[in-house]
Amino acid sequence: MVNLPFLYLRARNINRPVVDLLSMKTTCASLTDMGCQFDYEHRPMGGKNLIPVEGMRCYPREEAINIVKGWERYQNILEKIVKRLTGKSVDEKLREDIENLFFDLLCNHVEGVAKSELSDIKRMLPLLVQIYFQEYQKAKKRFQQSPERILNKKQ
């Protein structure tokens, strides 16, 4: 069984790739300490739903699911865009992103991730491990061999 995500376009997050099917969301790459770098008229569709506030955060005007639903008819073309930009199928890219998510959690790479986002990720973690056990094992192996872990062990 293949668990494909629902694809949609959104603002890119800091330290995230252009094609990011699953990760811990960080601050929007277009957000500055002065607010959004785009005026409302020039923001992408998803960005028009976001209201920048102090503290380098944005809050939605309406539920994100309502915005995301607008991408339903574009799933085939978005799958082709994933393939063109990454050289991978949606399933392959999703598995790569899930392995990277596991690795980031094991390494505690959570800087810039909102507490609510971290809480959401941790709630779905047991199910992700169950469904994507091979990716979890690969992430654990990478973590065990990572320089960060080896340095922390010696201290």
What tags apply to this protein structure?
single chain; 155 residues; mainly alpha; two-stranded antiparallel ribbon; 7 helices; globular
Describe the SSE topology.
Blueprint (H helix, E strand, L loop, with lengths): L30 E2 L2 E2 L8 H4 L1 E4 L3 E4 L3 H5 L6 H12 L3 H17 L8 H17 L1 H13 L1 H8 L1
Work out the helicity level: 40-55%
Order of the strands making up the biggest sheet: 1-2
How can the largest sheet be summarized?
2 strands, antiparallel
Order of helices and strands: EEHEEHHHHHH
**Total number of helical segments?**
7
Number of strands: 4
Quick check: average pLDDT? 86
Name the overall outline: globular
Beginning-to-end CA distance, first to last residue:
44 Å
Rg of Cα set: 17 Å
What are the segments in which pLDDT stays under 50 over at least 5 consecutive residues? Answer: none
Structural class: mainly alpha
- What is the domain tally? 1
Describe this structure in words.
- Helices cover 49% and strands 8% of the residues.
- By secondary structure, it is mainly alpha-helical.
- It has one domain.
- Strand 3 and strand 4 (57-60) form a beta hairpin.
- Helix 4 crosses helix 6 (133-145) and helix 5 (115-131) crosses helix 6.
- The model has no long low-confidence stretch (mean pLDDT 86).
